[in-house]
Amino acid sequence: MATNARRPSARELGNKAQQAGDRAERAGSDIQDSRAFRILVTVGLACYGVIHLLLGWLAIQLALGRGGEASTGGAMKDLASKPLGEVLMVIIAIGLFTLAVWQLIEALFGYRRLKTTTKARRKISSGAKVIMYSALGFSAAALAAGSDSGDSNESARSTTAQLMSAPFGQILVALVGIAIIAVGISQVVKGVRRKFVERDLESGAPEWGKKLGTVGWIAKGLSIALVGALFAWAAISHDPDKAGGVDGALKTLLEQPFGVFLLIAMGLGFAAFGIYCFVWSRHVNHEEI
Questions:
Q1: Is residue 15 part of a domain?
Q2: Which of 109, 140, 201, 215 could form a disulfide with 92, with the two C-beta atoms 3.0–4.6 Å apart?
Q3: What residue stretches are annotated with the DUF1206 domain (predicted)?
Q4: What pLDDT shows up at residue 216?
Q5: Predicted local distance difference test score (pLDDT) of residue 289
Q6: What is the pLDDT of residue 117?
Q7: Is residue 139 part of a domain?
């Protein structure tokens, strides 16, 4: 005689889902609280600082007419060409992938004490950082393996050309440009309003490090906004060749009146952010991890 199994009620299913979510959240918290993970986050932020110090140096070299690719990819290529460069690339790749995991955990389980709208905004931001850190990590891993990660300007132009070939492609490219400009502006605001002090740093971080962070976030934001402006200009002119990465943005800046001085100032801003990353690595706000 067949028996009918009782189906779980909606409340029971909801409770099981809640319990599963709580277990996943605790597992994420355990990872974040582990000493090994925190050490890797510190290493990752220090590696990120090295990349920006090199980016600042390349930007200044570009301003002085000595060529080179002034981008994060160019900075890693320059470092990879040095003695023990491949070993350094492995360390940087591990550090960057750790930062990606950190932000992935934040996107999935973090910001529990924040209001719903703020929490959603922070989670989206963490998700974007997962993509950024992962992309840089893959570039570092490729360089460690002896492969060339490619030119940032060519990559941007290729992406723009592909988007423009799609239906409503010109509008898509313009939207990409606007989104990138918005990210850049948000980082400028983060620097000007010093939002990073509360979000990123624990109490006790030195004031000089906070000042470098202000300069660094503004410089990063301006460079990103310039990249977005190039995408927008490519859409307006319907010319994919107008697009470019950070290197293209800095070269465009160099072509402006007083471009040499503007580019040197930008390079110093990147260097300031690089030093700030070392301060950040030593004073990470563990409540945000």
A1: no
A2: 140
A3: 43-109, 127-194, 215-281
A4: 94
A5: 45
A6: 77
A7: yes
By the 8 A CB rule, do 280 and 44 touch? no
Number of domains in the chain: 1
**Residue 111 above 90 pLDDT?**
no
Residue 169 maps to a domain: yes
Q: Are 279 and 22 in contact (CB under 8 A)?
A: no
Sign of the Cα torsion 128, 131, 137, 140 reads negative
- Judged against a pLDDT cut of 70, whether residue 203 lies above it is answered with yes
As a whole number, mean pLDDT of residues 11-32 equals 59
Q: How many CB atoms lie within 10 A of CB 116?
A: 7
Which of residues 91 and 79 earns the better pLDDT score? 91
**Domain assignment of residue 9, yes or no:** no
Residue among 46, 47, 70, 48 nearest 57 (CA): 70
Q: What is the DSSP string of the chain?
A: ---PPPPPPHHHHHHHHHHHHHHHHHHHHHHHHSHHHHHHHHHHHHHHHHHHHHHHHHHHHHHTT-----SHHHHHHHHHTSTTHHHHHHHHHHHHHHHHHHHHHHHHH--TTS-HHHHHHHHHHHHHHHHHHHHHHHHHHHHHTT-----HHHHHHHHHHHHHTSTTHHHHHHHHHHHHHHHHHHHHHHHHTTHHHHHHB-TT--HHHHHHHHHHHHHHHHHHHHHHHHHHHHHHHT-GGG---HHHHHHHHHTSTTHHHHHHHHHHHHHHHHHHHHHHHHSB-GGG-
The torsion angles phi and psi of 90, rounded to 5 degrees, stand at -65, -45
Question: Per-residue confidence at 5, pLDDT binned at 50, 70, 90?
Answer: low
**Nearest to residue 231, comparing CAs of 175, 190, 281?**
175
Domain range for 224: 32-288
